[in-house]
Amino acid sequence: MTKDFASLQTKIGYDFKDDKIRSLAFVHSSADMGESYERLEFLGDAVLELTVSELLYKQHPEFSEGQLTKTRAALVNEAALAKVARVLDLSRYIELGRGEKLSGGAQKPSILSDVVEALIGAVYIDGGFESAKQLVVSLLKSSVEKVLSGGGFADYKTRLQEHYHKKGTTDIVYEVYDEQGPPHDKTFFVKLRVDGYELSVGSGRSKKSAEQEAAKQALETL
Asked: Looking at the annotation, which residues are catalytic?
C-alpha cells in the first residue's frame, strides 16, 4: 500500500523537498533497510529540547529554573510524544521488521515517540532549524496549554528529585543493569540508587521509560 505522505505533510504544515529523508524518518532498525531513523531521532531530540526550553523561558519569565525543568519534562517525554504520534496517525507510515510488526511495534509508545523525534530531525535536515522549530511548536501547542493549566503528564523523576532536594540529597543515580531482547525490541532494566542505596527497580521499552518506572516505584514507597 502506498503511503499517503501528502496527507501527513498537510497535517504537519511542512512539504519535504527530499522524499528520501522524509521516508527515512519512519524506518525502524528492525526493518533491516540499511539505514534507520536513529540518527534523525538524535537530532530531533536536541531540537525538541531546545525549542521547548526557549518557548517556556520566553513565555514564562516568572518560572524558576526548577519550574522550567519540570514543565519541560512534562512536555518532552515518551507518553507525551506518543500521544502526538497517535494524533498524527504516524503508525501507518512506520517501516518495521516482521517480528516487530507481529509484536505490535507500530503502537509501542517507545517507537511512536522515537518517530516523532525522527520526524522533527528530518524537517531540521530538510528545511533548517526554523522549520523544525515551527513544527515543534505546532505539535506541542495543545500539550503546552494542558500542562500549564495543571493537567500535565506525570513526571516521576522530577517529583522524586524535588522530594530529595528538599532534604539536601542530590546523589540520585539511575543505572541500567540489564537489557533483554533483540536490538529492535529491547526491554531495559534500571536500578535507582539514592546516596548509594538501592531504592527501587524499573523496566521499560526505553531507558527513559524504565527510569520513570523506577522513580514511580520509589515514590510509592516513600
From this structure: 45, 117
